[in-house]
Design brief:
By secondary structure, this protein is an alpha+beta fold. The protein contains 19 helices and 29 strands. The strands form eight sheets. It has a seven-stranded mixed β-sheet with strand order 3-7-1-14-11-12-13. Strands 9-18-17-16-10 form a five-stranded mixed β-sheet, with helices on both faces. A hairpin with a 5-residue loop joins β16 and β17. α11 (375-392) runs parallel beside α18. The radius of gyration is 27 Å and the shape is globular. The termini are far apart.
């Protein structure tokens, strides 16, 4: 029967379920949604980084023909009395109230049936501000007299952030500390002590589908159509803001045109909801590409790392200090500070560790989750630091890593015992793919070659919950109801493969129902490479329950599911094609509480993600131009459910981080982003990426994962930046410690090395 024929579908590269709909233009996106009577909203934004609103004149905007209404923060309060939201702190107003905290902050919303009319009217709004002192640098924010928020109001949403307490007169949203062993004693025992400082820049997610949300109000109900990675959270938070039961708020999410962490939690949803309630008409707000630069970014960070090492290369102690630039609103920054912060010592076995990690407010656009959740910033520091130490000790960089690598059975800095983390295997496969044992011809002319490697790891954000429903129909076809958002990562296909494997039905007979909170059950969010593991578990449990019910039904009517088609079992029971079998599954992994004074935790994560990159470069010593000629990406992804999708995830993540490494940077002047367009903000094109990109998933199994699988979407980002920097030093002997690695930065370093530094 069909069930036997489908055995082994997990682990095969089957085509994506949504592939045909996307290439034919039939896939649904919120950007294409039109509703009767719908109004379009355009946002008027602040032009100062920090100031009190002295006057807001919207009369000229109201006078524009075709304008339906102009909404301010005061208007919002008539339908949402406390209009502040945020996953970690309730710190962000729907529209600015009394004060603005960054250039580009929404201050007013113009509504019209024609979006061009709304845009023209928004340009006629006049605001006057009493400018206040501003702070832009994350380290300066620690002691600055410019205070972004007078009082901090913790949201208490997530279990692992409920220890946060409201504070006054500080820009420190969260300070995370970890202590293991005796760091100072370790430094005293060391033969050499190395200390380096690194910086990463503020960059953007750049999903090709910008932020967009539509709200329609009913009789005491609200429906949101939104490009969101977290529909369940949006429903909960909107219900809280409105003071309504969750059952009165519906959130629907079709396909997303990319997300990468930008479209999490509340973004435009509260704004369109308030506008729809105020006007009684559907309201759509669709941002331009430029407006994405004012909505959410990736944390810039400053990282200090100090290590004590024996003369034969054993790391005895490590001290890490990280300052995260969270911008004007915390978003999920405190969780990044904590959940990624504890991996700051790297995938190394170090007995004595000290970590201090700070989430800081500044007067820049808010920063939040972006593919890697803070890990690429940390790996940039510790893997650059690792190579620098190895070269000072005159040791081979790979051999130095081998000597210190963290292996299964050993404790990570938190005290959690490592398990199912193929760190050593990933390192060895990267070295082998790079032919590390053979010398590299570095050239003798103006073009010099070099190579480098880097390896990083990440814990999954936990604890979080996923719930799934599998509905088996009387003809043997099936529907999956879950709130995971497919934004290009192939989750619909992977989930269908899991169901097909368990129920033994054809893949093409399975439909995945996209998130609709009135229909699909709870899922914390599609983020942090959690979906394959968490939702995969829930789906597996739901499919197994449906299978067991089917077996019981067949037994009840005297049939065997091994020899009888599913439709015949239903017909025997009901006398016709009728009925359903419904299986449900819920999954939340086990974790242990963290000691917030020491950072110690016996079970800090359900699983580890491992990623390494090897890079070969050519450096033009006359111009500083760097060409990455070859990039190798290797990861421990557990057992791969769909190898082809996994490979595309590895290469996609690496290419994204390649852009952050070589060219991408948000430029600011007095808090104003000066390059908010793809003409000035350079993402990699097809001619920019390395001509040779190779990807490999090592042969590994996550023992606790569904079919041995775990997350994949971020692992390719971890090692890219330091691998390239390490290769540059190997080629020309200069070290870059700040991203991005531009030709100018390399040329300046070459001139400084030659004793002829360039003047600014």
């Amino acid at each position: 029967m069909a069930r036997a024929a489908q055995s082994g579908v997990v682990g095969r590269s089957v085509p994506r379920l949504e592939g045909r709909a996307k290439v034919t233009g039939r896939a649904e996106y919120v950007h294409n949604l039109r509703l009767p009577g719908m109004l379009h909203g355009k946002i008027f934004r602040s032009t100062v980084a920090h100031g009190r609103i002295k006057r807001l004149d919207v009369s000229a905007a109201r006078a524009v023909e075709g304008v339906h209404r102009v909404i301010t923060g005061a208007d919002i309060r008539t339908v949402i009395p406390d209009p502040h939201y945020g996953p970690a702190f309730h710190d962000q107003p729907i529209l600015a109230l009394d004060k603005v905290r960054y250039c580009g902050e929404p201050v007013a919303l113009v509504l019209a049936a024609d979006p061009h009319v709304a845009e023209e009217a928004a340009g006629r709004i006049v605001a006057e501000y009493e400018e206040l002192p501003a702070v832009y640098d994350e380290v300066e924010a620690m002691t600055s007299k410019a205070i972004v928020h007078e009082v901090l109001k913790p949201a208490g949403t997530f279990p692992d952030l409920k220890h946060l307490q409201g504070k006054k007169d500080t820009n420190v949203a969260l300070d995370y500390h970890l202590r293991r062993g005796d760091v100072e004693a370790g430094f005293k025992k060391a033969d050499r002590v190395f200390e380096h400082r690194f910086r990463t820049q503020q960059v953007l997610h750049v999903p090709l589908e910008p932020f967009v949300s539509v709200a329609e109000a009913g009789d005491g109900t609200l429906t949101l159509h939104t490009a969101s990675q977290s529909p369940s959270f949006v429903r909960i938070e909107m219900a809280r803001l409105l003071g309504w039961p969750e059952s009165k708020v519906r959130v629907k999410v079709p396909f997303l045109g990319g997300g990468f962490g930008a479209k999490l939690y509340i973004k435009l949803e509260a704004l369109v909801a308030a506008a729809a309630l105020l006007t009684g008409r559907p309201v759509k707000v669709s941002l331009t590409m430029e407006e994405q630069f004012f909505t959410l970014t990736k944390h810039a960070a400053t990282l200090r790392i100090k290590s004590g090492v024996t003369k034969d290369g054993r790391i005895l102690a490590r001290d890490c200090e990280i300052w995260w630039n969270g911008g004007a609103y915390a978003d999920i920054g405190p969780r990044i500070t904590q959940k990624s912060g504890f991996t700051a010592p790297g995938p190394y076995d170090i007995e004595n560790v000290r970590i201090d990690s700070y989430a800081l407010y500044t007067n820049l656009p808010a920063a939040g989750a972006l593919r890697g959740f803070g890990i690429p910033q940390l790996v940039w520091a510790y893997e650059s630091h690792t190579d620098m130490m190895a070269r000072e000790l005159k040791m081979d960089p790979v051999e130095f890593r081998r000597k210190n690598i963290l292996r299964d059975g050993r404790p990570q800095a938190t005290g959690t015992i490592m398990k199912d983390a193929a760190i050593e295997q990933v390192l060895e496969r990267t070295a082998a793919r790079m032919n590390w044992g053979k010398p590299l011809d570095k050239g003798s002319g103006t073009i010099r070659s070099g190579r480098g490697v880097a390896i990083g790891f990440k814990a999954v954000v936990a604890p979080t919950t996923s719930v799934a429903i599998v509905n088996l129909y009387a003809d043997g076809s099936c529907a999956l109801y879950c709130s995971t958002v497919d934004m290009g990562q192939g989750s619909d296909t992977a989930y269908a493969q899991i169901i097909a494997e368990i129920l033994g039905i054809p893949l093409e007979s399975i439909t995945v129902v996209h998130p609709d909170t009135d229909v699909t059950p709870y899922d914390m969010a599609t983020l942090g490479s959690r979906s394959t593991y968490h939702m995969g578990h829930a789906i597996k449990l739901a499919a197994e329950e449906a299978r067991d019910k089917l077996i019981a039904l067949a037994k009840e009517v005297g049939l065997s599911v091994e020899t009888t088609p599913i439709r015949d079992v239903f017909r025997k029971k009901y006398g016709m094609q009728a009925g359903n079998i419904v299986g449900t599954g819920a999954f939340v992994p086990t974790t242990a509480p963290t000691d917030y004074e020491t950072g110690q935790c016996a079970d800090v994560t359900p699983y580890w993600m491992i990623g390494a990159t090897g890079a070969e470069v050519e450096v033009d010593t006359e111009t500083g131009r760097v060409t990455v000629t070859r990039m190798i990406n290797v990861g421990d992804l557990g057992r791969t459910i769909n190898p082809e999708i996994v490979e595309s995830q590895l290469s996609g993540a690496a290419i994204m981080q390649f852009g952050f490494t070589m060219s991408e940077k948000m430029e600011f002047s007095a808090g104003q982003c000066t390059n908010p367009s793809l003409a000035d903000y350079k993402i990699p094109g097809i001619l920019d990426i390395p001509p040779v990109i190779e990807n490999e998933a090592v042969d590994a199994t996550q023992g606790s994962g569904p079919f041995g699988a775990k997350g994949v979407g971020e692992s390719g980002t971890f090692g890219v930046s330091p691998a390239i920097a390490n290769a540059i030093e190997d080629a020309v002997g200069v070290r870059i410690t700040e991203l991005p690695i531009t030709a100018e930065a390399v040329f300046r370093a070459l001139r400084a090395k030659a004793g002829n530094p360039l003047k600014d």
